[in-house]
């Protein structure tokens, strides 16, 4: 009883925030103009692409007689090559993503969801199939399902979900990647086994890049699962930054090894460059 | 000797509790802060470099103990120099001299008087306070509370007490004790008063051992200003500085000269001579002894110090051996002792800017001289002309009034009483009221035998200031600008009259302010006029504007000169009709002697140690310590950083503002001049500025790749503060929120445009703007550009040089396409030359380009070189971006190469000519 009541309250809270998030994602996606979705070359598809003079070797059934009758030579009707991709999204919903170093900034989770949904809007509009935990599907209604699936988890740090991945598809992981890297490694290995390529988007708060702390401090993870006490936080800054740089480097290496692309973005700056980067990165891999 | 006492000493027992506090505080360290931080995963395993004990540091403990100790001591009520009771009953009379000699240490005297009144109040005695410089009033004893405020508000008078014997008569009956705060000088009737006071009770005299310094009015003698300083009592050798102050050429009061006066041991008077150029000397308004705040240490100067500069110009060469007949001989004799004489040609003396020019029998002046003299007159000069044979023989001012003559003259003049004429030589009439000579006694032996005659014009009588007994004008004058022209209708030598031989001549010159009197000092010549105070001195020697104070009769002023100033005639600067006299607190003759007290008088120094409660000081100290403790505790726990940041931010605003104002930003200038730097105007809208910077970065990259222009990183330019000359090209995204530039910024922008700079105005509204241009940004642009010096504009013609400086372009898209570009209009006579693809249009660079295609967004790249903003649709969009880059490159090329491409149209013709 109490569990379902809690679930309902959370669902309602999420449902209230969803339209705003969706609208924001649509707004962000609207700044990117589509057009490269048609492959702009002849291939298998439904859309008319062009008439071209028939060459020797073209099957007779390919000749468009209606067009050919209007002139002396034969024409072949070509269709635009269209291919839909399956893209699997994973947006980290762990507690570490709810961190914000400044009251003026939203938490990292907000930015991660915004980026994920905006990317989904773009991809769906381009006719791709997008999914999260389950099998990717196309169509506008899929967007609602994706928004519904953006849920918080109870873990301190998130681990990529690879369940919905389709072989030779694409994948997008949006997280702060501050947890155990072994999970990421295994997820990437799983993806590489299936020929899946994709994008790692690391979303960090400027405070995490800056470590602006000093004095006697007890640091706790967002869920309270980890604790670290120091007398002088200021002295740790250089070593913390070194470790962070090391981690970023490791992520970039991992991505390179399996043909993925890695990008790091901050909640302190605008979302648009990140979206544009991700969209191009997904495009470039094709 | 310092004594300390406590009002509630038992409270000091609380200090015993301090060690307990020590133990308590030591056990409680500052609490750590808990922070939620996802990066904790990266911190695990790190070890602190130096582990501090989890205890309060010893210095913080000491700080807290000190704070608590200070608080305990404060509540115990410490009192410094507790006062012993003097005893005594009955009323107390407090006398304060309150003259100028008291002003030097007035606050201490008032403090002492207040202390006496308060002490009497504590003892329940009634008090009366009398300031001896005030008029005598009946002495009334009142409760001490009634006096406290009045005593504190007393001010020293700029004169000395004079009528003490009268007060001795006005003392009330009955016995009372007296305290006399003396200034150390002897005043008339003081001994009478002291005797009367001693008869009523005990007399205590409070006197400061410091000598009283007084400045005598400086006088002019032997070509220098003689400064004399008197001191009472005489003592060890000492040096005092006397400063002369007055307005500098720009009218600001400042120190003009300074002289040191050395007192020999035991001497009560010291003198020094101050040699000054007349220009400087005439500016002096007052002398003062430096470091002395008293009316006696200040001496105002009047006309007696001023030496006027007078140019003497005689007509024609003097004949040798006939000195007494020289037209200027008597003038020179009269003026030499009292004025600086300048001789030479008129053009030369005008350069010396004299106060007075005397022309003795000079008839004609050249045109340049006339103009020079007129200009000098307008500024306030005095031109004094004497008649003579040459003037009488010339036709100057015959038909039309000469601008340098007060009246028209009749031909020939007249002679009376000579060998060849009838009648007696004429005597002078008494000077009428309103004439500057009014009041001078005309001697009987002054006669006039020849003179030039004035034409009877309507304003002749108004211009006549002296006449003969028969009414013929003898001296006439008229005003020219701020100055005046005076004509004496006789010669300046004894040829035509005996006037120059008489003392009246000198007096008349003096009245005309040609010469100045030799200081009389005794005021004997003051009677008969009313003297209006101009400025008055207060007791501290500070000059105050006299305002609407009524004038004083000359007799009263003369009496004050004899016996010293008083309440009715305070010291200051008084103005009569033609001159000013200064009445100073200390005159030339004023007698200054040390006070002598009758036997049996108790004499105390002024320095009584005052009772001082220290409770407030200790409490404040405790508060300060606690504040320091708060800051220290914050610092220990790392919470100070946020506060410090805020403080630094606030300070930074001031510091950077000042630093900016102090030195021109050289680093920025260096940055901007190392290479070509593209610049954008900072609009204050962070998003727009960011886009503009990213855009110029992208354009710079493309320039680097494709052309030989290799620009540095772009810079944002604040048009209000930064120098624009370093930047060949400014990109100005127009926002509605940007305030209009200040007039200085407009001036620098216009200078920038005139000296070859180019501004690309981008309204960034190409997506919504139609042809009308009525978007908010376009309106903002109109407001912005109204102050700029912009030539006529036209939509860019298809053959404008911008379309071919690097790439051949037909349109100029940015993030948007459409909107026409506006550039400087082609000259109306531009024609297409036969066989040339382009007209020969602007022979220069258009200083402005107006457009709205948001080029910066199309150019914009992030630090990795990736485009920041999407442009258009797909491939067509990329094409549009490419065209935007090409436009940008064309613009930069246009700025940097000017009309080079335009001139290319002449190349075929030049080649053809070379071939021949």
Structural descriptors:
heterodimer; A: about 290 residues; alpha/beta; Rossmann fold; 2 domains; five-stranded parallel beta sheet; two-stranded antiparallel sheet; 8 helices; about 40% helix; elongated; B: about 900 residues; 4 domains; 25 helices; 40 strands; about 30% helix
Q: Strands across the major sheet of chain A, in which order?
A: 4-3-5-6-9
Count of helical regions of chain A: 8
Q: Determine the number of helices of chain B (DSSP H or I, runs of at least 4 residues).
A: 25
- Count of structural domains of chain A: 2
Largest sheet of chain B: 7 strands, mixed
The CATH architecture of the largest domain in chain B can be named as 3-Layer(aba) Sandwich
Structure overview:
- The complex is a heterodimer of chains A (286) and B (916).
- By secondary structure, chain A is of the alpha/beta class.
- Chain A folds into two domains: 2-37 and 84-284, Rossmann fold (3-Layer(aba) Sandwich), CATH 3.40.50; 48-79, no CATH class.
- In chain A, 39% of the residues lie in helices and 17% in strands.
- Chain A has helices at residues 2-30, 65-68, 108-125, 141-149, 181-193, 206-210, 237-257, 272-284, and strands spanning 48-53, 75-79, 86-91, 129-131, 170-175, 197-204, 217-220, 227-230, 261-266.
- The longest helix of chain A is centred in the N-terminal third of the chain and has 29 residues, at 2-30.
- Chain A is elongated.
- By secondary structure, chain B is an alpha/beta fold.
- Chain B has four domains: 1-30 and 54-82 and 611-663, no CATH class; 92-212 and 592-610, von Willebrand factor, type A domain (Rossmann fold); 319-511, Rossmann fold; 666-906, Rossmann fold.
- In chain B, helix 19 links the parallel strand 34 and strand 35.
- In chain B, helix 1 runs antiparallel to helix 3, helix 3 packs antiparallel against helix 16 (615-636) and helix 4 (106-122) runs antiparallel to helix 5.
- The termini of chain B are far apart.
- Classes of the chains: A alpha/beta (286), B alpha/beta (916).
- Chain A binds chain B through residues 31-36, 40, 96-97, 99, 157, 176, 178-179, 207-208, 211-222, 226-236, 239-240, 243-244, 247, 272-273, 276-277, 280, and chain B through 30-44, 46, 48-52, 635-641, 862, 866-870, 872-877.
- Strand 7 of chain A pairs parallel with strand 2 of chain B.
